[in-house]
């Protein structure tokens, strides 16, 4: 905390618990994520649960291609080496976390998953983050994750997006909130650090709906949260809905207001790993303002100071 900022998990002007603050205070270092694509697919693409993915999903194969022994291991290590070179050009003293991001990274045979995760361990990363769905956490996968957790700093990132099943149907998420809770509880009972992803601006969701999601996430109390704006990208079902007039994206001021209101309900010790997504200008259809991430972050900082508010200020009044 500095002299003008009442928020305790901050050493600058941020009034929320940033990932940068968490890393510096926990590891005395910057930590960067090396994004890895292990070639997995998703049950919402291959026909097991659905096809086409969520309505905002741009790419990734709908099928998992069987690879020979060692192929995934070698691919993961090559990608990590390339990412390390990129990161170290600007930050040679930083730590690196392997981030299995593309598609569903617990949706493959356990032996295949172990090969991918072991490659990251053998590379010597600081930690591993695994993006997945809670309906892809059978007991044998949980056992593997527990083993990985005993060897490194593991975070499992879950795409919750919203607690509202009506919204989940609209975005074609293909699992219910109760199904989410079942997988989330498995991770919590296993002592595995979790990060929940939320998306603001989903079709037909009101401010009240988004606040209800934040309040429920506060009750669940994960270690970390990522908050995203719903982007409309080329080639997605969401683009078709937008072009037909069936969806109107949030304005920047609306998004800033919603995020601040959500932060007020999230307990201060929850790390906010992301507070707006990184829009790819090559693919972005709307809202175009979202491509200016610095302006969005600055707007959140200014408004939080003007309102004299901070993360968790309402956490005890839900």
UniProtKB/TrEMBL annotation:
Entry-linked PANTHER family: HISTONE ACETYLTRANSFERASE-RELATED, PROTEIN YHCC
Q: What cofactor(s) does the depicted protein rely on? A: [4Fe-4S] cluster
Annotated protein name in UniProt: Coproporphyrinogen III oxidase
Q: Does the keyword Transferase apply?
A: no
Q: Which UniProt keywords apply?
A: 4Fe-4S, Iron, Iron-sulfur, Metal-binding, S-adenosyl-L-methionine
Where is each Radical SAM core domain found?
26-278
Matching CDD domains: Radical_SAM
Q: Which InterPro entries match?
A: ELP3, Elp3/MiaA/NifB-like_rSAM, Radical_SAM_C, rSAM, rSAM_horseshoe, rSAM_sf, YhcC-like
- GO MF annotations in UniProt: 4 iron, 4 sulfur cluster binding; catalytic activity; metal ion binding
Keyword Iron-sulfur part of the UniProt annotation: yes
Which species is the source of this protein? [Eubacterium] siraeum
């Amino acid at each position: 905390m500095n002299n003008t900022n009442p928020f305790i998990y901050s050493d600058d002007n941020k009034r929320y618990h940033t990932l940068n603050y968490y890393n510096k205070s926990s590891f005395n270092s910057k930590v960067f994520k090396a994004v890895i694509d292990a070639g997995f697919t998703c049950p919402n693409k291959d026909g097991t649960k659905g096809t086409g993915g969520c309505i905002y999903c741009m790419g990734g194969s709908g099928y998992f291609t069987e690879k020979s022994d060692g192929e995934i291991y070698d691919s993961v290590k090559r990608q990590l080496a390339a990412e390390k070179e990129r990161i170290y050009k600007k930050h040679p003293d930083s730590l690196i976390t392997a981030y299995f991001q593309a598609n569903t990274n617990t949706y493959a045979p356990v032996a295949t998953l172990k090969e991918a995760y072991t490659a990251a361990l053998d590379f010597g990363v600081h930690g591993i983050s695994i993006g997945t769905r809670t309906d892809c956490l059978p007991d044998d996968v949980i056992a593997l994750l527990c083993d990985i957790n005993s060897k490194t700093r593991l975070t499992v990132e879950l795409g919750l997006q919203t607690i509202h099943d009506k919204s989940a149907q609209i975005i074609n998420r293909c699992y219910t909130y109760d199904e989410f809770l079942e997988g989330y509880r498995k991770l919590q009972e296993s002592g595995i650090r979790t990060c929940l992803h939320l998306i603001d601006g989903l079709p037909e969701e009101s401010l009240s709906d988004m606040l209800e999601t934040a309040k429920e996430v506060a009750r669940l109390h994960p270690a970390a949260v990522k908050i995203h704006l719903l982007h409309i990208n080329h080639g997605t079902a969401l683009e078709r809905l937008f072009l037909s007039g069936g969806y109107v994206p949030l304005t920047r001021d609306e998004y800033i207001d919603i995020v601040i209101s959500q932060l007020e309900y999230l307990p201060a010790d929850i790390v906010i790993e992301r507070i707006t997504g990184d829009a790819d200008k090559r693919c972005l259809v709307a809202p175009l303002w979202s491509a200016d991430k610095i302006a969005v972050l600055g707007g959140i900082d200014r408004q939080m100071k003007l309102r004299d508010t901070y993360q968790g200020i309402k956490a005890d009044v839900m």
